[in-house]
Specification:
Layout (H helix, E strand, L loop, with lengths): L18 E5 L2 E4 L4 E4 L2 H4 L8 H11 L12 H14 L3 E5 L2 H18 L6 E5 L8 H6 L3 H4 L9 E4 L4 H10 L3 E6 L2 E2 L5 E2 L2 H14 L2 E5 L23 E4 L10 E5 L20 H16 L2 H20 L5 E7 L2 E6 L6 H9 L1 E2 L1 E3 L3 E4 L7 H16 L11 H7 L5
Parallel strand pairs: 3-15, 5-6, 5-7, 7-10, 10-11
Antiparallel strand pairs: 1-2, 2-3, 4-12, 8-9, 11-12, 13-14, 14-17, 16-17
Helix pairs in contact: 2-9, 3-9, 7-8, 10-12, 11-12
The structure holds pyridoxal-5'-phosphate.
Subunit structure: Homodimer.
GO molecular function: transaminase activity
EC number: 2.6.1.11
Length: 413
């Protein structure tokens, strides 16, 4: 049956297609047409659609107990907390329902940390092109003026520096004694798939240690195996003080988590933070099942292998394409930056290639395939993207123009 969107707030620019079922990396729309999913609900359904083990656990737990309250002990929350801490080298977890809430928790920890150190107006260092969510605090932390526009006044207490630039952080440190924490993504997802160098992350860790700042890493998109490690920062061999998770942790069931270690793990006292739904038995049991499956099936390692295949394939198919400026990525996070705005490619990919992609930062095609893809599906994604891009008109013709010839004329002649 066809409904309309007229009773929904127009917060989204939606594609006209609606899916009714899925299986693994495949989806079917209302007319039964099959699609290949190269975005996994924006890094959420990493174990694919309709995973039978997850479906069974949801059904079983729904028949036992959905919700009690954080007034009581919740065994599944304790189990998931223990297991996440073991994977990440952390000590305590606060559970919530989304990425933005996980980052709100981190931001509140940073403020408490600052006040404990007698900093009256604590500042948090954030990155250009960073993305941390849509609540007022996380929007203020986000480095995208287009998303912030209209929602002023933004929250104070943030200082912004260029990403992957340690000298910029050092300069900020020297100028602003009230910095108490850094919030950063190991790979900027919304920011166009930009990977922080391992060396930068290690230097940032040292600087945080020297200055007594909390290193807070937003792993909401890059975490849970996607980059080829459980968490993106692990490629650099560092451990943050605070880490946030959401997206793939529930494979589509809403759950968020803020993990902490050391001093940061003990900042909250009872009554200082809370969530009605956060950490309910159903969400946490799903999280435990996701971890079981990911560990059993070696998902981070799979993402590393498939990610290399994806990036090599894209490089081979599109490396010489006249409109492709760069191909970037780590594991199963890939970005293809074009020489123009390319938002309309999302609709064309659906219609012409039966492929789900997203475009971020206006000019970058973003691919986030589910981690359960097989090799043939990865190759198929590459082939469909290549076909999609085969028909776009060239902006900069390869033949030299009169201007090129003039520019190349040696000046000393
Ligand atoms: C998606 C995302 C968020 C926000 O998560 P929501 O669940 O949409 O609130 C925050 N940080 C990063 C890096 C993300 O990719």
């Amino acid at each position: 049956m066809q409904h309309t969107t007229s009773h929904l707030m127009r917060a989204y620019a939606r594609q006209p297609v609606s899916f009714t079922r899925g299986s693994g990396a495949r989806l079917w729309d209302e007319s039964g047409v099959e699609y290949l999913d190269a975005i996994a609900g924006v890094a959420v359904t990493s174990l694919g659609h309709a995973h039978p083990e997850i479906a069974a656990v949801i059904a079983e737990q729904a028949g036992l107990l959905l919700h009690t309250s954080n007034v009581f002990r919740i065994d599944w929350q304790e189990q998931l907390g223990e297991r996440l801490c073991a994977l990440a080298g952390m000590q305590r977890v606060f559970f919530c329902n989304s990425g933005a809430e996980a980052n709100e928790t981190a931001l509140k920890l940073a403020r408490l940390h600052g006040h404990r150190r007698q900093v009256a107006q604590p500042q948090i260092l954030v990155m250009e092109n960073g993305f941390h969510g849509r609540t007022l605090a996380t929007l203020s932390a986000t480095g995208n003026p287009a998303k912030q526009q209209g929602f002023e006044p933004l929250m104070p207490g943030f200082l912004r520096v260029p990403y992957d630039d340690i000298e910029a952080v050092r300069r900020a440190a020297d100028q602003s004694p009230s910095i108490v924490a850094v919030l950063i993504e190991p790979v900027q997802g919304e920011g166009g798939i930009r990977v922080a160098s391992a060396d930068y992350l290690r230097q940032l860790r040292s600087l945080c240690d020297e200055r007594g700042w909390l290193l807070m890493i937003d792993e909401i998109q890059a975490g849970m195996g996607r980059t080829g490690a459980w968490f993106g920062h692990q490629h650099a061999g560092i451990t943050p003080d605070v880490m946030t998770l959401a997206k793939a942790l529930g494979n589509g069931f809403p759950i968020g988590a803020c993990l902490a270690r050391g001093e940061a793990a003990d900042l909250f006292s009872p009554g200082q933070h809370g969530s009605t739904f956060g950490g309910n038995p159903l969400a946490c049991r799903v999280g435990c099942t996701v971890l079981d499956i990911m560990a059993r099936d070696g998902m981070p390692q799979r993402a590393a292998v498939l990610g290399t295949r994806l990036l090599t394939g894209l490089q081979k198919a599109l490396g010489q394409h006249p409109s492709v400026l760069a191909i970037r990525g780590q594991g199963l996070m890939a970005g293809i930056e074009l020489d123009r705005s390319c938002k309309e490619l999302v609709g064309r990919a659906l219609e012409e290639q039966r492929l789900l992609i997203t475009v971020t930062r206006d000019t970058t095609i973003r691919l986030l395939p589910p981690l359960i893809c097989d090799e043939a599906q990865i190759d198929d994604i590459v082939a469909r993207v290549a076909r999609l891009l085969s028909s776009i008109p060239t902006l900069n013709p390869a033949e030299p123009t009169l201007n090129d010839l003039v520019d190349r004329t040696p000046h000393h002649v």
